[in-house]
Design brief:
Elements (H helix, E strand, L loop, with lengths): L3 H14 L22 H4 L8 H5 L1 H6 L6 H8 L6 H8 L7 H5 L6 H10 L4 H11 L1 H13 L1 H4 L2 H10 L1 H7 L19 H4 L15 E4 L1 H6 L4 H11 L14 H5 L3 H15 L4 E4 L2 H8 L1 H4 L6 H10 E3 H7 L14 E5 L3 H5 L4 H8 L4 E4 L14 H4 L1 H18 L3 E4 L2 H10 L5 E4 H15 L6
Parallel strand pairs: 1-2, 2-3, 4-5, 4-6, 6-7
Bound molecules: iron/sulfur cluster (2 copies).
Length: 456
């Protein structure tokens, strides 16, 4: 950039203003050749230090400090003297919302670089939990047991006690981790989604029965949040009877805690069971992105081709509805219009899905769609982050709560069950929280009622 002639000119200008050389002696301008001042290691890095990532990084928004920011973390994790122990606090603070990846003009994925570093130091406690999770039958029995007694333990006093009792486990996840009594937990399902739709589950070894597989992920299966039922109901209205093939966690939370090998183990199961379907429909933003990112997870490995083939077929339910040639009748049962805003989940944004949910919401009868400020900003949930660092996650969601209040929305729609948990906790009743699929389902069912048909 600085050719010798230009550098000589700099030297002469500086000498005329600072003949004694008292200002920044030896810095940038000196008797040494200009090439001595070039930091070739820094120049070889892809980051241009523009700070666009910082402007969208939710952690930077809260802490306003370079060492708690996307750009700062890029420098830390790519430093030749990087050490996990010296950088643990900051390297563990990233939410993996992927907002930086969406914003970076140089194509840098800081979050991925941090994941690479975390994979060098997998969290032991998280490993125990995720290995238990991988034993689906035992884990699901455990969740059903918790579901049966949720009305007893999910009360303010018991939650305070649980917060204390679980501290030893939480501390091994992260110094900041806790099961805060303020966290609004979803209702756990006693009859999980797969129990409720046995007719949609292909038998082991059975051929593919439908062009569409529904990858429900963990949340829609384990929680009674209405998302899984809504996705299936909407698909049926579009003339599709989906398969619910065998599936394991997409891998997002597992990789977040450094367990890449375990994430790959589950991903291999998903690659095998999702092969053969024309479309793999999702209702969860994080599952959508993770499935689309399997080619990166398996980069240079034998599974990469299958991962690329799957990535092309992954379709969020909002994309499916927008692309479907079937246009079911819609109606509203309300006399007045309801103001609905959209919280754009970071992982769905990173997967490139931004317009479809908004267009669908704007077209629903009985809905007055309002674009709220900061709709594209992270709400701070990031899957398990609201457990890993509840206090920071609540500081992040504060900006979202103000934006919702400013918009006057009565309902905040989103595309991810994990965002729903964070919004219900953080909005403190400022608005009702629903998944886009639930609002579509309501419009279809209202039309059915008006024409005398029952809900599907
Ligand atoms: S990572 Fe990308 S967005 Fe962030 S400072 Fe570097 S070039 Fe800019
Ligand atoms: S993934 Fe999110 S929290 Fe992490 S560096 Fe990027 S913007 Fe910040």
């Amino acid at each position: 950039m600085f050719v010798p002639e230009l550098y000589d000119l700099f030297v002469r200008v500086k000498q005329s203003f600072d003949p004694s050389g008292v200002l920044n002696p030896g810095i940038k301008i000196s008797a040494r050749p200009f090439t001595d001042h070039i930091d070739y290691v820094r120049l070889s890095k892809p980051c241009a230090t523009c700070a666009k990532c910082n402007s969208v990084c939710p952690v930077y928004d809260v802490f306003q400090s370079e060492d708690m920011s996307s750009r700062g973390w890029f420098e830390i994790v790519t430093d030749t003297n990087y050490s996990y122990l010296n950088s643990k606090r900051v390297v563990e603070a990233c939410l993996h919302c992927k907002s930086c990846r969406t914003a970076c003009p140089a194509g840098v994925d800081v979050s991925q670089l941090i994941l690479d570093r975390r994979a060098e130091q997998p969290n032991k406690m998280a490993g125990l939990i995720f290995r238990f999770h991988a034993q689906s039958a035992r884990f699901e029995r455990f969740l059903k047991f918790l579901a049966r007694y949720q009305s007893l333990w999910d009360r303010p006093l018991m939650r305070r006690l649980l917060d204390r009792l679980t501290k030893p486990i939480m501390r091994r996840l992260a110094a900041t981790a806790r099961l805060s009594p303020q966290l609004v937990l979803p209702r756990l399902a006693q009859r999980q989604l797969r129990d409720r739709y046995p007719e949609l589950i292909p038998r082991s070894g059975q051929a593919v029965r439908s062009p569409v597989a529904y990858f429900h992920g963990c949340a829609a299966n384990y929680f009674e949040d209405g998302v899984g039922d809504a996705v299936i109901s909407v698909l049926r209205k579009h003339g599709v009877e989906p398969d619910l093939p065998l599936q394991r966690c997409s891998g997002t939370p597992i990789e977040t805690y450094g367990h890449r090998a375990l994430a790959k183990e589950g991903a291999r199961v998903n690659l095998a069971s999702m092969a053969g379907y024309d479309k793999v429909v999702t209702g969860c933003a994080s599952c959508t992105l993770m499935l689309k990112d399997y080619p990166t997870l398996f980069a240079g490995e034998p599974e990469q081709a299958a991962a690329q083939a799957l990535a092309k077929r992954v379709t969020h339910i909002s994309e499916f509805v927008a692309q479907s040639p079937v246009k079911p009748a819609m109606a509203s049962l309300q006399a007045t219009k309801c103001k609905v805003a959209y919280h754009s989940s970071c992982h769905l944004r990173a997967a490139g899905v931004t317009k479809e949910p908004r267009a669908i919401l704007a077209g629903l009868p009985g809905v007055e769609y309002v674009e709220m400020p900061d709709a594209d900003r992270c709400a701070g949930g990031a899957g398990t982050y609201l457990v890993k660092d509840f206090d920071t996650s609540q500081r992040i969601v504060e900006r979202k709560r103000k934006a919702v209040e400013q918009s006057g929305a009565e309902v905040v729609a989103t595309s991810c069950p994990a965002c729903m948990i964070q919004l219900r906790t953080g909005l403190q009743g400022a608005a009702e929280v629903k998944h886009v699929a639930q609002l579509i389902q309501e419009a279809y069912e209202a039309a059915d009622r008006q024409t005398g048909g029952g809900p599907v």
